[in-house]
Hints:
221 residues; 2 domains; transmembrane; membrane; transmembrane helix
Amino acid sequence: MSILDWIFIGLFSFAILFFLFSILLLFSLFSTKKKIRFLSGIRKKNKRKRIKLKRERRRLEGVYKRQLINVIVLLVLAFICGGGSFYSRYYQANSLSERDSDAIVQGYYLIEQIDLQLKEAENNDNKTKIANNIKELSGRLSSYGNRLANQRLTVEGQGILNKQFKIMMELGINLAAQQEDFLKNPEKMSEFNEDLEKAKLQQKKVFEHFNINEAALKKKN
Length: 221
């Protein structure tokens, strides 16, 4: 399990404990309040007994105030821990895991490199070297067929990410299966450029959904 999983479990467990303790203390609070009302209804003619009764009532009122403060504190702690646990779950459902994040970043660089190689092939006579470079890059891209988005993500998030993995896999397989002379074929080049744009378009959807800074990735490229 990830750190966020442990945080969720810990905070949720504390939230339940604090809530249960507050409920138990609430029963004691009502019991103390009932005793105060009972003592308030007693009328003693004897002065000593009245003083003793008054002291006992004041003592119970002090106990009642402390219990009330403790109940409020426990409920606030339960609310904070409960809110924290659900926020951690919400964060997990809307943020990429380290594994998925690495996959998207690596995929971004692979697509950029393939795009550069295809553009370079238009003005470079050494197409054998470029074809080999593309095959190496596309082979790594085709491995995305084995990937699935983290199941803790929302259904929408999983769908967007899995679609990107599928598009990258298909692009990688198609490029890797080509003969070296495909770089001299204008129709093939046009077809792969279209596939590349399709991958980039889906990539932008991933970036927008998960708030990934593409400009920062370009600087590192």
